[in-house]
Design the sequence.
């Protein structure tokens, strides 16, 4: 009997702690009236009306007359933004790093492009749920570890399961390029600081061989099924992107040259710490950069103290297609992406250009700009209403968020705690 009671308690507790119920499909027209609309492509529309039906924007413009049907939202004095996009993160693949059963972001093996992150995506993740109140509504569920980690997919953050969440499955393959320098293992007698990686050429050689074999596999008329080689074919026909996680000048240069020589169509650098030093090379090869978060310390002693703050602006000024990512920080910190973009404003980018780092630029890099990233007629009604500037943590107060036109919940474990302790505070203030 005791065992049954424990089981019931566990199930009941899991039910209480589950994510908010996903919103139903949009059933009636919604019109947002009088807002300042930040389109996401650099444009701003004052006194804007946005109308969407069946999950898609049907009209947007200044002083539009909306028919008095469905839901009318008075947004005078408020701001509307496209949903922010979080690329290159293991959101939904790991809940608590220290709890092994909740960690499904890495598989055994070095060259495993056939491992699909989407089938491991946890739509009930509390970490994923916490993204929405800050406007992060879409993300790229990205595998980690190994040399070729696997295949990512793009998801929306309000779903029953991974099938509902999927926006674009198997969008790209992620590769961790070896470092030419590594930190010395002082406990083995090596020098402290950065030392040359003596295995670099061998590691790069293995990658080149794998790409060559994958290309040859695709051209063969008769072949035995090879899952890793088969998964690579999208890189050569342009249906998938190759995301190269690298930071150094030599590493990025070697990786891009290898990928282009192998016939890879779309190449994206993730990290790109020193991408500003080879900006012309990246631009000439049509390589986009998902640059690391601005709220981090410089990696090298001779870097400017504010180098990470201003790196996105340096890359934008160099003419590169740039988006922001948060790979080197814990998943929960991804909710602060808006404030990383806000930091770039302090370094000289205008606010609408900074906004593009989270919206239209990232949508283009991920290949979903036909549906997401901007507020335009025909595109998905994935957007949110903020009381003020969404890039400023003092005024990023979201009152409504929609994903594909669905009115999603902004309640999370954090908001529940806020209501709980605000109630306690109010009672104490009233002397109760």
Sequence:
């Amino acid at each position: 009997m005791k065992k049954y009671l424990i089981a019931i308690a566990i199930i009941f507790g899991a039910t209480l702690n589950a994510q908010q119920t996903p919103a139903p499909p949009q059933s009636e027209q919604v019109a947002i009236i009088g807002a300042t609309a930040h389109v996401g492509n650099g444009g701003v529309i004052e006194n804007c009306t946005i109308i969407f039906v069946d999950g898609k924007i049907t009209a947007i413009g200044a002083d539009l007359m909306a028919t008095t049907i469905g839901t009318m939202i008075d947004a005078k004095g408020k701001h509307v933004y496209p949903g922010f996009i979080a690329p290159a993160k293991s959101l939904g693949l790991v809940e608590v790093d220290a709890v092994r059963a909740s960690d499904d972001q890495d598989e055994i093996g070095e060259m495993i492009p056939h491992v699909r992150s989407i089938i491991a995506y946890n739509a009930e993740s509390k970490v994923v749920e916490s993204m929405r109140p800050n406007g992060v509504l879409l993300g790229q569920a990205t595998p980690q570890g190994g040399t070729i980690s696997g295949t990512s997919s793009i998801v929306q953050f309000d779903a029953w399961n991974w099938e509902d969440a999927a926006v674009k499955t198997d969008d790209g393959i992620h590769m961790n390029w070896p470092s030419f320098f590594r930190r010395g293992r002082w406990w083995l007698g090596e020098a402290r600081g950065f030392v040359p990686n003596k295995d670099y050429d061998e590691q790069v050689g293995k990658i080149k061989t794998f790409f060559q074999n994958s290309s040859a596999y695709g051209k063969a008329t008769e072949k035995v099924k090879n899952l890793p080689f088969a998964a690579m074919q999208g890189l050569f026909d342009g249906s998938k992107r190759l995301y190269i996680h690298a930071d150094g000048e030599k590493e990025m240069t070697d990786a891009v040259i290898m990928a282009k020589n192998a016939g890879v169509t779309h190449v994206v650098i993730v990290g790109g710490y020193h991408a500003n030093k080879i900006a012309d090379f990246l631009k000439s090869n049509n390589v986009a950069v998902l640059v690391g978060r601005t709220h981090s310390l410089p990696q090298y002693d001779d870097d400017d103290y504010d180098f990470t703050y201003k790196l996105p602006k340096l890359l934008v000024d160099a003419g590169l297609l740039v988006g922001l990512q948060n790979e080197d920080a814990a998943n929960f910190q991804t909710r602060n992406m808006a404030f990383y973009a806000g930091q770039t404003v302090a370094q000289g980018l205008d606010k609408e250009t900074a906004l593009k780092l989270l919206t239209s630029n990232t949508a283009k890099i991920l290949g979903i700009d036909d549906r997401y990233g901007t507020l335009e007629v025909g595109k998905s009604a994935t957007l949110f209403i903020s009381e003020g500037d969404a890039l400023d943590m003092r005024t990023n107060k979201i009152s409504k968020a929609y994903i594909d036109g669905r009115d999603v919940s902004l309640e999370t474990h954090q908001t529940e705690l806020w209501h709980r302790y605000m109630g306690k505070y109010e009672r104490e203030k009233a002397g109760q």
Notes: The domain at 84-371 is CATH 3.20.20.140 (TIM Barrel). The chain has 13 helices and 18 strands.
